[in-house]
User: Fold this.
Amino acid sequence: NQYFDFAGTIQTGFEMIDHYNRYFFQDLLVDGDVTFTNVATLYGPASLRITGDVHTADTSWTTGSLTGGTIVHLVGAGDQHLSGSGMLGHVHVAKTGGSVALDNDIIFKQHFTGNGTLVGPGTFLSSHNQYFDFAGTIQTGFEMIDSYNRYFTQDLLVDGDVTFTSVATLYGPGFLRITGGVHAADTSWTSG
Assistant:
């Protein structure tokens, strides 16, 4: 296990390489690229604030008890790239400029919040019980890939194609607003 209570800035690459918990007691700023290779659980109440690119190779990591619902904050002033074969959970976009580019399909789970623009070429793959409180625009493909609930605190705008592969229930009060095409492969989903 690793405990972070560091008020400074890490100005180099940062990689989580072993399957242990990480605890953030105050915000940890990484002014460089972050790689999630193997993570057990990330715990708040603070967050990991990233200005560089993010690579995820971990397909099983989770995020634990949080204050405010997010722990991975994308805060770069320019474009940031997300890549890898893994997943990301509890992501908050709080950029001062630029966009977030999905270099390939990325699995997102749990909370997705903030404001900004997500662009492709990759697809946003929505997984697990996911809560959306995102005031920006997803300008790439969006796919719900497993039979869990999705919760929309406010309207989510997808300026791209949406695929419903597997969904349990969609809940408001917000709406999923789609400007692209819609493909429905799930024959059993409902809206709450």
